[in-house]
Amino acid sequence: MSLLKYESSLREPLVDGDKTYHQVTEDICRPIEVKPLKSWYVGLSISLLLLLFGVFSIYRDVTYGIGQWNLNRTIGWGWDITNFVWWVGIGHAGTLISAILLLFRQGWRTGVNRAAEAMTIFAVMCAGQFPIWHMGRVWMAFFVMPYPNSRGPVWVNFNSPLLWDVFAISTYFTVSLLFWYSGLLPDLATLRDRAKTKFRKFFYGLTSFGWSGSTKHWQRFEALALVLAGLSAPLVLSVHTIVSMDFATSVIPGWHTQIFPPYFVAGAIFSGFAMVQTLLIITRKVLGLEEYITIGHIEAMNKVIVMTGSIVGCAYLTELFIAWYSGNPYEYAAFYKYRIAGPYVWAYWTMMTCNVVSPQLFWSEKLRRNIEFTFVMSIVVNIGMWFERFVIIVTSLYRDYLPSSWSTFYRPTIWEVGFFMGTIGLFFTCYFLFAKYFPVIAVAEIKSVLKTSGENYKKGMEHLENESVEVFAHDYLHGHDH
Amino acid sequence: MAIKKFVVGNFDDENVLFPAVKRVRSAGYKIHDVYTPYPVHGLDGALGLRQTSLHTAGFIYGITGTTTALTGISWIFDVDWLMNIGGKPHIPLPAMIPITFELTVLFAAVGMVFTFCWLNKIAPGVKKHVFNPRSTDDIFTMVIECTEHTNVEQAKAFLASVGAQEINEQVAEDGWWWGTYDKEQVLYKEELA
């Protein structure tokens, strides 16, 4: 085995600056061991207030029933399911980064996977709230689980996509959590061994499970990570496929289309990466991690955004084409009378602008590598993706087959808005706590790519590229001390 | 578990560690373990550890999930509460695929993580002897187990000659050893001969 680690100098380094293993540990662990900034307290307080608003909204929904919401006769799904699909979509980037990019051997995932996975878990937690509280009589929520009961037994309907959703979301949450936490163990052990205060000694001693860094443990660790990645990759695709089947298996014009699964998956990755950008651009700045989450990382994610955004745009156009080409008058009406025109025209064109037109700007390298622009774009994309779900749900429901029941404008009540704000509060509360108490970058993984992709190590290798092929091959095969 | 004596050597470069592992093993010392801050590829091979079978366990858990879902849904639909939905097939396989897939993944993932913890003997709050707290930071710690034949001073000198730093002696409760080396009770040196 060659001891020389070589990667072409044309490749951008994944870790900037003159780093050693110890410096990596210091850089990533330091924010956890010092008092948080004032802005952290401000951010956490705002998130907690939003969360409280959400809790109060849910309290009202449970006490007075979901009549508190403005759902009506034809618009049976409104903000609640829009928000559900939006959050699940956001929850797709983390596992994509950690699983699919691991299988594709994309080195840049090491800098961003930890935070992205955490974000996934928090987003799925938020998503889960909506179907649960939409049940109304939430104390009967356990009826969705198949278990032998005294009511017949009446079983859940295994043919229903809504039940598939129960399985998909709960499996996705569990597997993402296990994947994230098993990857955290070595880094928590690092924190434990560095701990000075009583609290940190206790907390990281408890959470690191007694990880020692033994060679055999690492061998199993890598095997576990690889298999979990292999399992999670199709899982990510299956989850949003199943969510899309909630719509696609129905007979509602605008929903009953076969393009939904791939279209939803692409949209989910699109919005998920946008949310990762929003969070990481702030995190890297506040925690001073610009050398680990480099412009190169941000550019790589922007490339994913422009690709998935284009897939989504392609799907929108296909939908319009098929609505005309199929010759189905209801399908045609749903798209050409009630979506691109009609009372919800603003929602449709907001979606089109945010999701299809604006991401195309990322074809420019200059804009892809511009932090401020990326930050604005990441928020634009998430607004666009929220509108996509709103358009799909509400514009397909507000005019059904019976014109006499066509509802007027659907507008959420304060409690629907409060519920949504509450989940945003929950998401950011969790993220703030995570960023304070857990390493936001996978320390051990950065160390394992440091000597191939670290800036100073790559510089040390540069002279080799000027050598003749013979010298290079000789050094590569027989090791070289730099 | 027995309390044993160990000679501990620390390395700050994996390029020094690899040849050192080879030489320490050839000299007949029993390497208890090497603690590293990140997964060093090839170190398991250099230590003579066999490949892990965790994948196989994952596969078995996975097919358990598959069969649980398929038999469970079929039993519910066709035995426990027979449902005739518009004369459709009793075992609607396409409609069973999503849940079957999810349960396969769920069983495999949960099973593997628990097996991983069980094999590594890790659990919330477990405390283990730490030979060098910096082995989770930037130091590669090689731990040699002293048997009745080991001359501690010689072992220390040998470690120093292969490039180890901060060599010391520790008495600790021994953890585990799953490598073939220990199981066969054959020293590496004898294998070579």
How does the SSE layout of this entry go?
The complex is a heterodimer of chains A (about 475) and B (about 190).
Chain A: H1 21-33, H2 38-64, H3 79-90, H4 93-103, H5 109-134, H6 161-194, H7 198-207, H8 215-248, H9 260-286, H10 295-325, H11 329-336, H12 345-357, H13 365-368, H14 371-397, H15 414-437, H16 443-453, H17 455-465, H18 469-478
Helix pairs in contact in A: 1-16, 2-15, 3-5, 3-9, 3-14, 4-5, 4-8, 5-6, 5-9, 5-15, 6-7, 6-8, 8-9, 9-10, 9-14, 10-11, 10-12, 12-14
Chain B: E1 3-11, H1 14-26, E2 30-35, H2 43-46, H3 54-80, H4 93-120, E3 140-145, H5 152-161, E4 165-173, H6 180-184, H7 188-192
Antiparallel strand pairs in B: 1-3, 1-4, 2-3
Q: Please give the share of residues in helix of chain A.
A: 55-70%
Could you give the distance between the termini of chain A? 17 Å
Count of alpha and pi helical runs of chain A: 18
Number of strands of chain A: 0
Q: Any idea what the shape of chain A is? A: globular
Question: Mind telling me the CATH class of the largest domain in chain B?
Answer: Alpha Beta
What series of H and E elements makes up the topology of chain A?
A: HHHHHHHHHHHHHHHHHH
- Provide mean pLDDT of chain B, rounded: 83
Which structural class is indicated by helix and strand composition of chain B? alpha+beta
Strand content of chain A: under 5%
| Tally of distinct domains of chain B | 2
**Low-confidence region ranges of chain B:** 176-193
H/E element sequence of chain B? EHEHHHEHEHH
Radius of gyration of chain B: 25 Å
Oligomer: heterodimer
Low-confidence segments of chain A, given as residue ranges, are none
- Global mean pLDDT of chain A: 88
Main β sheet profile of chain A: none
Which chains share the greatest interface?
A-B, 65 and 65 residues
